[in-house]
Automatic annotation (TrEMBL):
Single GO MF descriptor: oxidoreductase activity
GO biological process, one term: bile acid metabolic process
UniProt xrefs under NCBIfam families: PRK07231.1
Organism for this UniProt entry: Paenibacillus endophyticus
Keyword tRNA processing: no
UniProt similarity note: Belongs to the short-chain dehydrogenases/reductases (SDR) family.
The keyword Signal belongs to this UniProt entry's keyword annotation: no
Name of the protein in question: NAD(P)-dependent dehydrogenase (Short-subunit alcohol dehydrogenase family)
Keywords: Oxidoreductase
Amino acid sequence: NLKLTGKVAIVTGAASGMGKAIAELFAVEGAKVVVSDLHLENATQVVKEIKEKGGEAIAVQANVAMEDDVQRLFNETTNSYGTVDILVNNAGIMDNFVPAGELTDELWERVFAVNSTGPMRTIRKALAIFLPKSAGVIVNIASAGGLFGSRAGTAYTASKHAVVGLTKNVGFQYANKGIRCNAIAPGGVMTNISASLTAPNPFGAERAMAGMAINPRVGDAEEIAKVALFLASDESSFVNGTIITADAGWTAY
Ligand code: NAD
């Protein structure tokens, strides 16, 4: 029994890492997947791979920080598939561990535009489709950095805390309208983001080491995709406004 048969799912940042793994797994589970990303070429490649395995998907280029792009993403989705049932806000950028004392307005605003305002924009559009049919599911990819203060730089940490607040607020507000909104807080997962981290940790090498020493292990994107599938499917029908940590126990320390 497939878990998402016939469902239309938008996944942002789906050309790489966790977004790609989520798009692929959702397609295997019977969803029609809108593989959206800043980079069309990479998104098109993901669509090709999904189709080769018998799945259904389209690629849509969209920068979640741009209102016009988000509008076009929803237009192209409804033109192709008629509706939206599932929204996965996965697109995100890191801040290279820049600490508060060295933050520029530009970096703060760039990180928030993608990580926090992006999900607000897509949720706003999704609600216009979800509310009339009293159905819809939102899955936000937050971060362990959205729950704890020490997992990244200042802008990233604050932007992911905003995603946690957004998730709880939206989940509660629409709880009696057939709409659910939850988030995943992944620990360290091997993707392009983690591979690109080169800056020294702002808390100092010793404290960074201590943080890493308590991390049981790094995860695979597929392990996050399985949690996203649970949250997107009816298996989690009574789960709403909450954050599921997926980090092998890192933040339990
Ligand atoms: P990734 O870099 O492999 O993938 C992110 C994708 O998002 C890329 O394809 C990129 O092109 C796209 N993207 C970036 N900015 C965008 C924008 N403005 N509009 C649309 N697409 C955009 O990274 P990942 O690790 O798979 O990250 C996915 C999510 O998981 C992010 O929100 C990230 O913050 C979060 N996260 C990652 C980790 C980790 O250790 N990798 C841990 C916790 C949370």
